[in-house]
Amino acid sequence: MSASDAPTFLLTNDDGIESPGFRALYDALSTVGEVVAVAPADDQSAVGRKLSRRVAVREHEMGYAIEGTPADCAVAGLESLCPDADMVVAGCNKGANIGAYVLGRSGTVSAAVEAAFFGVPAMAVSLYVPGGSGDEWRRKASDVEDYEEAAAVTRYLVEAAPDAGVFDEADYLNVNAPWTPEGRATGMEVTRPSTLYDMTAERDGDHVDLVDRTWDRMQSGDIPDPVGTDRRAVVEGRISVSPLTAPHTTRHHGALDGIADRYDPASVPRVTDN
C-alpha cells in the first residue's frame, strides 16, 4: 500500500486517552495508516451512548482530548476534527465487552455504533482480563505491552476486513481478545453475542449493590454459553469477532399487527375521562 493509499483512522475509547490500551492501538495502527486520536480526556467507562451538547477540546500529541463521552468523540471527530476518517476504531478497552446485554452499556462499543450511523466502518476492541474487579484486577494489564495481542489482531482486521467486503454486511465489528501473558490466543472465531444475563441486586441499608456474576463465572469456567458465542470463545482463549449492525434489527410480529389494528383512539380511556 502506498502512502497516498494509506487509510485514516479515527481512534477513540472510553478508558481515556492516556490509557495503555489506547496507546497500544495508536502505535499498531500508525504502522498501516494515519491515526487521529479523538478520545475522552478521562475515564468514561460504561456510559453507553450518552451525548453532550457542548464539549471542551484540547490538542494532544496523538490528536485531540475531549471532555466528553465516547459518543461525543465519534460525533465531534467525524463531523469536525477528523471528517475524512476511513474507519473508526474504539479501544483497546481494559475488560471484555461481551454479551448482548453489555453492548448498550459499553462506551467503547457505543463509539463504534455512533460511527455506523455516519456510514463509516467501525471496530470496537477490548481485552478480556480475568478477575473483573478489585485492586488485583486493576494492577493487571497496566502496561502497553499487555495489549500486544489485541493490537496485533486490530491491525490484521483493519487491513483485511475492508477489502474482503466485511463491511458490506456488518456495520461494525466487536472484537474481544483474551489476555494471555503466558502465550498467544489459540485462534480467531466469528461469534454472536451471548444471551447469558446474571445480574443480581442486594439491598444493604441505604444502598443496593449491583453485581454482574458473569465475571466470576468466567474466571471459574462455569459458563453455559454455547459454542459460537463471544463469551465461550474468549474464555477458551480464542479471539472473538462479532459482526454487528446498527440500528438494532427488528422482527415482524403478527400478534403486534393485530393489536395495532384493534386500536381505536376514541375508545381508549384518558385520565381526564375519570
TrEMBL record:
Position of the signal peptide: none
Region called Disordered, residue ranges: 243-274
InterPro entries with a match to the protein in the record: SurE, SurE-like_Pase/nucleotidase, SurE-like_sf
Keywords: Cytoplasm, Hydrolase, Metal-binding, Nucleotide-binding
Enzyme kind, highest EC tier: hydrolase
GO MF, one example: nucleotide binding
Ranges where the Survival protein SurE-like phosphatase/nucleotidase domain occurs: 10-194
Annotated Gene Ontology cellular component terms: cytoplasm
This protein's record includes keyword Metal-binding: yes
EC annotation from Swiss-Prot or TrEMBL: 3.1.3.5
UniProt cofactor(s): a divalent metal cation
Binding site for a divalent metal cation: D14, D15, S45, N93
UniProt subcellular location: Cytoplasm
Reaction catalysed by this enzyme: a ribonucleoside 5'-phosphate + H2O = a ribonucleoside + phosphate
Cofactor: how and how many bound: Binds 1 divalent metal cation per subunit.
PANTHER family with a match to the protein in the record: 5'-NUCLEOTIDASE SURE, PHOSPHATASE, PUTATIVE (AFU_ORTHOLOGUE AFUA_4G01070)-RELATED
Role, per record: Nucleotidase that shows phosphatase activity on nucleoside 5'-monophosphates.
Protein family: Belongs to the SurE nucleotidase family.
Protein name per its UniProtKB record: 5'-nucleotidase SurE
Organism (species): Halobaculum magnesiiphilum
Gene this protein is translated from: surE
